[in-house]
Write a structure and sequence with these properties.
Blueprint (H helix, E strand, L loop, with lengths): L1 E11 L2 E10 L2 E6 L11 E4 L4 E4 L1 E6 L12 H10 L2 E6 L10 H14 L3 E7 L16 E8 L11 H10 L4 E5 L2 H15 L8 H4 L2 H18 L3 E3 L21 E6 H5 L5 H4 L12 H10 L7 E3 L27 H10 L5 H15 L16 E5 L4 E2 L18 E2 L2 E7 L2 E5 L2 E2 L13
Parallel strand pairs: 1-4, 1-5, 6-7, 7-8, 8-9, 9-10, 10-11, 11-12, 12-13
Antiparallel strand pairs: 1-2, 2-3, 5-14, 14-17, 15-16, 17-18, 18-19
The protein binds zinc ion.
The site of zinc ion has 5 residues, from loops.
Length: 445
C-alpha cells in the first residue's frame, strides 16, 4: 500500500518546502519536490492543497486516567482526542488506579494501550518513597522515564523524605520527569489563606497557595540533586519566569537537565479565573500574565526544550468549589497544536519553532526511534494542518470523555485536517478511526 500526500507545504527541520511525501507500508519512503512526478505510481493520492504537512506531535505529558479513573477519561477516548489534535504519540503518567509503581502495574498499562490506543504510546514508572530498587528492572527501550512527584497532585504520589529523593536521583539510570512544587510552602500558604478566608477560599487563591516560591524552591532542589548525582532530569510544566534561571540555553544534546512548558501556562493567566473559574485550575497553578509572556519568549531559545499539554481531564462535577475543593487539571490535547499555532499568528513564535518544540525536540529528548521528523525511513506520523481556517470550539466537537474544554468558545485560525499514524489515516475532517491501534514507542538507549 503506497500513499502520496502531494502539493503540501512541508514544515520540517527549520524549513518550509513545497512538495510531496510518499508513504510505503507505514514508513516515509521519499520526499519529492518535483510535483510533476509525484504520486504517479501510488495506490492513493491525497492533494494537500498547500496545507502544512508536519510531523505528528509527540506529547510527553498526559494523564489518560486509565486504569481506575475511567469515569474521567480512558485510553480510547483520550487517544481519539489526541488524533483529532494532531498528536500521534503520547507518554502517560502513573497517577491512575492502581498507581503505576510496580512492574506488574506498568505491564498492565502497556497491555491496555495495545488494546485501546489509537495513537502511539509509552508510560512513565512512578517513583515512591521505597521502590527505587525496581528502577534497574525497567525496560529502557519501552518505558519513557520515571515520574517523580516532588509536589502532591491528583493521586497523592508525593515523595517528600529527603533520603528517598536522594535514593531516587542516585538510583535512576534513565530520565526522571519531576513535578516540582514544595509541599511545605503550599501547606503554609493554604493554612494562612484558610485562616483569613475560611475553608474553601475563592478559586483565584489557588495561584497564591501554589505560589511562585513553591515552584522555585522545589525546582531548585531537583536541579541541585541532579547536579550532585549526575541524574538525567526533565522538569515538567515550568510555570514561572523565575524558574527559567535554573536552565541553560544550550542544545539538547549538551544538557543533562531539561525543561518542559505546558500549553495551559502559555495560554492562560491568573486573570482568567474571573471568567473560567476552576476550569483553569491546575497544578502548578497558572501564574501572572508576565510569567506567561516570559515563558513564551523562552521558547525562542533552548532554555525550554519541549511544549506538552499536561492533559488532565476531570468531570465538571469534580471541578465544583473553590481553591481547596475543586480538583486540579484540565483537558488540552485536542487543541494544543492549534493553540500554539495561534501564537504563530500573533508573532510570538514561528511555525518552525512550534514544530521544533512539539515534534522534533520530544523525539530527541527521549531518543525515540524514527519518529518526530519527516525523513525517509521514519514512521509516517504526519499531520495536515490548514493554516487559514477560522473556527470556534463548541461542546459538540470535544472528544475527551469529560465532555468539556477550557478552550470552549475560543476561535482558532488553523485547523487539523488529517492525522496519519504509522502511515494510516486515523483522523480526517472531523472523524476519528477508532478501530486503529498505535504502536508502543521504542527508545534508542
Ligand atoms: Zn501532569
Amino acid at each position: 500500500m503506497t500513499t502520496c500526500i502531494k502539493n503540501a507545504i512541508i514544515v520540517n527541520e527549520g524549513k518550509k518546502t513545497l512538495g510531496s511525501v510518499i508513504i510505503e507500508n507505514g514508513i516515509i519512503s521519499a520526499i519529492q519536490t518535483n510535483e510533476a512526478e509525484s504520486g504517479t505510481s501510488c495506490d492513493n493520492v491525497i492533494d494537500a492543497q498547500q496545507c502544512y504537512l508536519i510531523p505528528g506531535v509527540i506529547d510527553d505529558h498526559v494523564h489518560f486516567r486509565d486504569p481506575g479513573l475511567t469515569h474521567k477519561a480512558d485510553i480510547l477516548s483520550e487517544s481519539a482526542a489526541a488524533a483529532a489534535g494532531g498528536v500521534t504519540s503520547f507518554m502517560d503518567m502513573p497517577n491512575c488506579n492502581p498507581q503505576t509503581i510496580t512492574l506488574e502495574a506498568l505491564e498492565n498499562k502497556f497491555n491496555l494501550a495495545s488494546e485501546k490506543s489509537i495513537v502511539n504510546y509509552s508510560f512513565y514508572f512512578g517513583a515512591t518513597n521505597d521502590n527505587a530498587a525496581l528502577f534497574s528492572q525497567l525496560d529502557k527501550k519501552h518505558v519513557c522515564g520515571i515520574k517523580l512527584f516532588m509536589g502532591a497532585s491528583t493521586g497523592n504520589m508525593l515523595v517528600e523524605k529527603p533520603e528517598a529523593l536522594r535514593q531516587i536521583f542516585s538510583k535512576a539510570d534513565m530520565l526522571i520527569a519531576a513535578h516540582c512544587e514544595e509541599p511545605s510552602i503550599i501547606q503554609w500558604n493554604s493554612d494562612l489563606v484558610q485562616m483569613k478566608y475560611g475553608d474553601d477560599p475563592d478559586i483565584a487563591f489557588h495561584s497564591k497557595i501554589r505560589s511562585e516560591e513553591a515552584c522555585w524552591q522545589s525546582s531548585a532542589l531537583a536541579v541541585q540533586l541532579a547536579k550532585e548525582t549526575g541524574a538525567r532530569l526533565h522538569v515538567l510544566h515550568i510555570s514561572t519566569a523565575r524558574e527559567l534561571e535554573l536552565f541553560e540555553d544550550k542544545p539538547l544534546a549538551e544538557k543533562r537537565i531539561t525543561a518542559e512548558v505546558c500549553v495551559p501556562h502559555l495560554v492562560f493567566c491568573d486573570k482568567d479565573y474571573a471568567t473560567l473559574g476552576a476550569r483553569v485550575k491546575c497544578n502548578p497553578s497558572i501564574k501572572t500574565a508576565v510569567d506567561r509572556e516570559i515563558l513564551r519568549c523562552a521558547l525562542n531559545s533552548d532554555t525550554i526544550d519541549v511544549i506538552a499539554t499536561d492533559h488532565a481531564p476531570h468531570l465538571l462535577s469534580e471541578k465544583q468549589g473553590g481553591a481547596l475543593k475543586a480538583v486540579s487539571g484540565m483537558p488540552s490535547i485536542q487543541f494544543s497544536l492549534v493553540c500554539m499555532l495561534e501564537l504563530v499568528r500573533d508573532g510570538v513564535l514561528t511555525i518552525e519553532q512550534v514544530i521544533q518544540k512539539m515534534c522534533h525536540a520530544p523525539a530527541d529528548l527521549f531518543q525515540i526511534d524514527k519518529r518526530g521528523y519527516i525523513r525517509p525511513g521514519y514512521k509516517a506520523d504526519l499531520v495536515l494542518v490548514n493554516p487559514n481556517c477560522e473556527w470556534t470550539v463548541t461542546p459538540d466537537c470535544i472528544l475527551s470523555k469529560c465532555g468539556w474544554s477550557p478552550y470552549e468558545g475560543k476561535t482558532f485560525h488553523s485547523k487539523v485536517e488529517k492525522t496519519f499514524v504509522n502511515g494510516d489515516l486515523v483522523y480526517s475532517d472531523g472523524t476519528v478511526n477508532t478501530s486503529h491501534r498505535g504502536e508502543v514507542l521504542f527508545f534508542n538507549r
